[in-house]
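ok new one. same drill as before - structure tokens go in, u give me an amino acid for every spot. 182 of them this time. try not to just spam alanines like last time pls lmao
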């Protein structure tokens, strides 16, 4: 059995990954809308995952706070357009969702990739949950990668932390960048 993971490190440039949204637009998932300088990318397993649906439905409670501090939000998965359209029936969200994340793109993000347990679960390999915050210099400011649907950042704490990080008076650096060679 061989495994492949190549994690994105804090401070690294976020890869340019283009995906479609239901509105018909193609977006670079790491680039915030023009009025924002940072982006929160939420990678979720797909329509088949009730934990993902719950997490995505919690996000709208924090969108205004995130937007107020200049953070734009997008969610992405490996689901097809049809699967996302079906999923939208159980989502009550106010941020864009992109679909079609390929295995190559999952690998570029360094997410864990799982195979479905049965055809009833889903019809494709999928990314396990991950969360990336990309700063105004296209650097990964915050990264959280899980190998299962049960471990995800608590949103209230994340939003409060991002507000603190973005406050220039705190001079808070990107964490996790210790370099033994220096």
């Amino acid at each position: 059995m061989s495994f492949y993971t190549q994690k994105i490190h804090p401070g690294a440039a976020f890869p340019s990954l283009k995906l479609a949204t239901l509105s018909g637009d193609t977006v670079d998932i790491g680039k915030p809308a023009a009025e924002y300088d940072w982006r929160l990318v939420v990678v979720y397993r797909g329509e088949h995952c009730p934990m993902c649906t719950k997490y995505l439905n919690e996000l709208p409670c924090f969108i205004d706070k995130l937007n107020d501090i200049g953070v734009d939000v997008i969610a992405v998965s490996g689901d097809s357009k049809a699967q996302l359209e079906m999923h939208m029936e159980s989502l009550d969200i106010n941020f864009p969702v992109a679909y079609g994340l390929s295995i190559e793109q999952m690998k570029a993000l360094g997410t864990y990739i799982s195979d479905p347990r049965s055809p009833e679960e889903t019809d494709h390999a999928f990314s396990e949950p991950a969360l990336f915050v990309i700063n105004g210099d296209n650097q990964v400011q915050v990264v959280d990668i899980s190998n299962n649907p049960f471990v995800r950042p608590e949103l209230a704490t994340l939003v409060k932390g991002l507000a603190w990080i973005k406050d220039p008076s705190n001079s808070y650096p990107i964490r996790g960048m210790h370099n033994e060679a220096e």
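Strands lie at 18-21, 26-28, 38-43, 71-76, 97-99, 113-114, 126-127, 130-134, 140-145. and btw The chain has a mean pLDDT of 93.
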